[in-house]
Write a structure and sequence with these properties.
about 70 residues, alpha+beta, Ubiquitin-like (UB roll), about 20% helix, binds zinc ion
């Protein structure tokens, strides 16, 4: 898999990323598996991982202002 920005090879890694669930609500997902570019730090989230993240966000809902969860496959 190659970076869509600079064309370098992407590496699999885990990171923490914030996702907005509403106007003022953010969910931080820790331990998230992503493919990250070693050159420009651009990252890509696979569809299967994104689907899982969406189900986590659905479960939390837009009520929480800030929630930190751990991604578990
Ligand atoms: Zn890149």
């Amino acid at each position: 898999m190659k970076c869509h920005v600079c064309g370098s090879e992407l590496e699999r890694t885990v990171t923490s990323l914030p996702f907005k669930t509403g106007e003022d609500s953010v969910v931080i997902v820790k331990n998230l598996p992503v493919a990250q570019c070693g050159n420009c730090r651009e990252y890509l989230i696979e569809d299967v991982v994104m689907a899982r993240v969406e189900s986590i966000l659905d479960r939390i809902g837009p009520a929480a202002e800030l929630e930190v969860v751990r991604y578990a496959a």
